[in-house]
Amino acid sequence: MRASLIQLEVSDPGSPDERRAHAAELVRARAGDDLVVLPELWTTGAWAYDAWQAGAETVDGPAAVDSPTVRAMSTAAGSAGVWLHAGTVVERADDGSLYNTALLFDRTGALRRTYRKIHRYGFDTGEAVWMAAGRDVVTLTTEFGDLGLATCYDLRFPELFRALVEVGTQILVIPSAWPATRREQWRILCRARAVEEQAVVLACCSAGTHADMHQAGGSLIVDPWGAVLAEAGHDEEVLTADIDMDAVTTLRRELPVLQDRILGIPAPEGGIAPLRRV
């Protein structure tokens, strides 16, 4: 499988339409790849809360044809003949709620999956206030492997990734707008998710600065052993790697740690089961 992560610059003052046109041009240039991935909330900015209401789009059902991002990314994916994870957009649901929603297109440009981010960052600000939480674990089988979808802050919660692997996920796709001040944590967590799930990690972060938040960049392609196959710098760039998907099957067969999980460990009333020291 050949995968490319497009680490978009988000500090450019251009309009969302200009950003969509730029991203579409970069996607079309990836003809010959299998999978292309964009970052989180690259049209509006992941930290520009005041832009979310105006930039929200309907991405589900018949009204999705009116979404400018769905139209632009569908056309780009079909033109390049690639699977495209178009990062995330601010979705406005039928009830008016906002979600941080990922878009996955197939090689024909058909929108095959959406994923509403489950873990919202901000505690009592940002996403935690302005956006609703997703509830669904989302996967999709492709000709090169089974994809599992997660977004940015989700990376800190291994339970989601274990749920994805439970249903056969081999490739974890993680668009992000991770802050530069925590870049080393980003790198550690991406590698940890690859090692613990014995899966390929495709983690695409944005570059630049917006809403006074410096972005980490440092997009990563990690193999199931946790080895970094490719890593981006701080600026906009396209990161590409050829990935041996047989390595996932081989590793899970020859080092079958996933079969040694102990499920259903009872927790004490009112808390998480502690580890017992012996």
TrEMBL record:
MF annotations from Gene Ontology: hydrolase activity
Q: Which Pfam families match?
A: CN_hydrolase (PF00795)
The UniProt record lists the CN hydrolase domain at 1-245
Keyword field contains Nucleotide-binding: no
Is Hydrolase included in the keywords of this UniProt record?
yes
Protein name, entry field: Carbon-nitrogen family hydrolase
Q: Which organism is it from?
A: Streptomyces spongiae
Q: Which InterPro entries match?
A: C-N_Hydrolase, C-N_Hydrolase_sf, UPF0012_CS
| Keyword terms of this UniProt record | Hydrolase
Concerning its family, UniProt says: Belongs to the carbon-nitrogen hydrolase superfamily. NIT1/NIT2 family.
